[in-house]
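Researcher: I'm preparing a figure for a lab meeting and need a structural model of a single chain. I don't have an experimental structure, so a prediction will have to do for now. The sequence is pasted below. Please return the structure as tokens so I can convert it later.
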Amino acid sequence: CDDADNDCVPGGEQRDTVTVWAADGSPPVDVTDLAAAVAAAGDGDVLGVCPGDYAGGFTIASDIELVGDARELPRILGGGVGPAVRVGADASVALRHLELRDGLAPQGGGVSAPQATSVELEGCRVVANQAGAGGGLAAGGTLTLLDSTVSGNTASDLGGGVLVLPQGLLVLDGVTDVTGNTARSGGGVTLVDATAYLSSDASIHQNGASDAGGGVFGSGDASWDGGTVSENTAVRGAGMAFEPALGHGDVRVARATLRDNTATGDGGGLLADGAPNLTVESTVFEGNVSGARGGGLALLDCDTVALTGSNVGTGTARFGGGLALESANLTTLSTLAGSFAGNTASVDGGGLWLMDAAQVQLGQGKTATSIVDNVAAGGGGGIDMTHGPLELVSPDVARNSADEGGGLRLSGVDAALLSGQLVDNVATTTGAALHVAGVSRVRLDGWLTVDSGASTVPGIRVDAPQLVVCGSTSVVDVTENTVEQRTIAACYDTTATTFTVHTAPTCNALCD
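Model: Understood. Here is the structure written out token by token.
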């Protein structure tokens, strides 16, 4: 672009000109009508777009590249009457160093590519577009954004920034930011039976939803890997929200960071509502806020949930500062490694609040789940659980605090606490380490240490039918706050406020 013919190359001075480099090697040609150049282009052609404003609304039907100028992005304008760019069925298109703006469409205001094979954007800005779904972009094949920004777009329904249609793949690479977009659900990104991969520098940031999924919304089967989802807002699932579609909806989230998202309702970081199977791997939840249940995660009516190597910290909610689970379908929850640390509940369940679970297993083998430094104003500083079986394997439940059950409050729970420790927890009223109520049976077994921390109240409060202490357990006496050590041949049992010592065979029957 140096004012000579046939040389509209990035970095020059020429404006409002498009140079077509044909794939057949014929001499380049300068034109001023971008839409006409696109219509005439064949597979493999490259169109160099000089700085300037160009009318959009055209369809790219061939496998071509549009290359703008990184110093001053050429603008392709939808003009409020159509999308900035349409990509035709089965086409593979690359858009580089362009700004796509002011589009308006039912689907994909900036880029509408529902049946394209692939669309790649490099160094692009997709801004100020509107659509019913996919305010910025809507794609059904592979959509790749490299060092690009999607901002200020709006969808009246799904996907303010990006909508990925069934069997689609979204790749956010380099320093790509989806920010400041809004929708009913999926303010930043919506996946419909789709998959997303993000680089470590890619972010979904400061988007908003009037319903669910301020950052990300998933419908049906969804997989999300990588990136940072931060400072998004919504009524439900401010960071991410996942809901099933037509009876299916397996969800996987891996290697992501969900930070400082705020929901007025359930799920500050992540909401899974009715998802059959949810897997969360190596993911960090930090500083997320819920006005109801689940500062970090809210799991409602899911079938199975598995958390592996994930850390849930500094979350805030009324119930379940770190994690809240409530299930009419009796969810099975398991964790391997990871932690719940520094979370706060204004009512119950500082670390975890669990209601009506089919099975909860925290920790496996010698791999513990750490539940430390959580606070609840009511019950269960570490865990507050009502109804269902609980297995804590090698737990590290320490320095939690609550009014009742500084470490754990269990009601109507069949629980086994195997090895590990419940130490340095604090309660104001009763049960510094453990408060057992309702129709519960709790077994303390293995090399487990229980104490009353700095509390002046008993380490264990039992208002339930049975507490059994087995194995080589060191436990604070209910009445005297003193540590007792059982021998291999004996076990403790209580139905009131003091322990009874048993020997075999009674002990064996209680502890098997």
